[in-house]
Fold Major facilitator superfamily (MFS) profile domain-containing protein.
Amino acid sequence: MYEMLGGLKHMLTIAFLSSFAELLLNPVIIDVTVAAVCSDPNHSCSFAVYLTGVKQVTVGLGTMVMMPVIGNLADRYGIKTLLTLPMCLSILPPAILGYRRTTNFFYAFYIIKTLFDIICQGAVDCLSQAYVAKNAHTRKRISMFGVLAGVKSISGICATLAARVLPVASIFQVSAISSFVAVVHMLVFLKERLHDNDDSDSYDDDDRSDQEINDGNDLRMLEEPILRDAQIKTHIFTSVEDMVSLINNSTILVQALVVTFFATFSLRGMNSAFMYFLKARFGFNKNDFAELMLLSSIIGSISQLFIFPILVSAIGERRVLSTGLLMESFSAACLSLAWSPWVPYATTVLVPGVMFVMPSVCGITSRQVGSAEQGKVQGCISGVKSFAEVVAPLLYSPLTALFLSNDAPFYFPGFSLLCISLSWMIGFLQSILIKDVPTSTLNNEIRNNSNQGRASLSLD
C-alpha cells in the first residue's frame, strides 16, 4: 500500500490542491451571492436561489456531454493532456472576485465560472479516479479510491479552516493561487503511467502470465511500424455511444449507474437547498457555514482514510455502499425537521455515509472493464452525475425557494430536504440489488471482452 501510495503521490497532491481551491469558496459564496443580488444581505432571497439553480443546470447540461468525451479522450491521448485545459481555466473565476466583489464583478464571475465549469467541474475528479484505476492493482483499487476521497476531505478541512480565518478578498485570491500551483505541479511532476505495462497490473498475480501473452504482446504488436499503413478504423465515441456500449456489457454497471444518479441527484439537491435553508431558518453566515463544513470534513476524512478500508474488507464494497446510502437518507430526514441550530451539527455524525458512496461505486464499476477503458467508464459515471446535476436544481431550487417564502402552501421549511431523503432511499433500494461478483469471474469476462474486441478489430 505504501509503495502504491508513493507512486500516486503527485496525483493525490494535484487532487488536494484543486479540491482545496474549489472548497475554499463554499463557505463564502452564499454570502457573496446574497450581498450582490439581494436587497437584504442578512437573509436569503428567491433570486439568489434561482441564480444558483440556473448555474447548476447549465453546467450540468454541459458536463453531461463533456465528461464522457473527456474520459474517452483520456484513454486515447493521456490523462495528463486532458487535465491541462480544465485546470488552467479554473484559475480565472476566483481571481475576478479576488480583485473586486461589486455586483458587476459578481456577474462577470458568475458568467465566466458557469462557462468554464462546463469543462472544469468534475474533470479533475473524473480523471484522477481514472488515473488511480489505471495504476492501482485490482485488489488495492477500492482502498486507493478511499484514499483519494480521503485526501479531498482533508483538503476540505484545510479549506474550511482557511475560509474561517481569512478575509473574503483573500479567500478568492488564495483559491486562484492554489489552482495555479496545481497546474504547475501537474506539468512538472505528474507521469502519465507508473508502469510499463498497465494492463497486467489490473489482474490477479496468478493470471499475469496469460494476460501478458494475450494482451501485452498484442497491444505492443499493434504499435509496430509494419501496421502503420494498415487501415484501422478509429472513432471518438460520443457520450451516448459510450454509455450504450458499456451498459450493454454489464448489468452491474447499469445498477451502479442508477445508484450514481440517485446519489448525485440527492447530493446536488442538498447543495441547492441546505445552505439557503440554514441561512433563512437560523441566520447562518460565513463563519457558521465554515464551522459546519470543518466538522463534516474532519469526520469524513477520518472515515474515508481509516473506517472505509476496514469496512470494505469486512463486509464488501456493495454493503458499504448500501450502508452509506441508508445513513444519508436518515440524515436528510433529520435535517428536514431541524428545530434548532444545533441539529445540523449533530447530524454530522452521519457524514461518513455520503463519503462511502462514490468510492464504492468507483470500485464496483472499475472492475467491470479493463485498465485501457478506465477513463471511459469514469467518464460515463461523470456523465450520469452531470445529468443528475441538471435534474436536481430544476426540482429543488424552485421547491426550496417556495417553502422558504411566505407563499408556501403549508409551513414546512425543510420540505425539500424531506424529498431529498426519499431520493436517497431510492438509491439505497437499488444498491441492495447489486450482486457481488468474484474477482476471478470478472477477470475472465474482461479477458473475453478484450479478445472479442481484438478479433473485431482484425476483421475490420
Summary: The mean pLDDT is 76. The longest helix spans residues 46-77. The domain at 8-191+238-445 is CATH 1.20.1250.20 (Growth Hormone; Chain: A;).
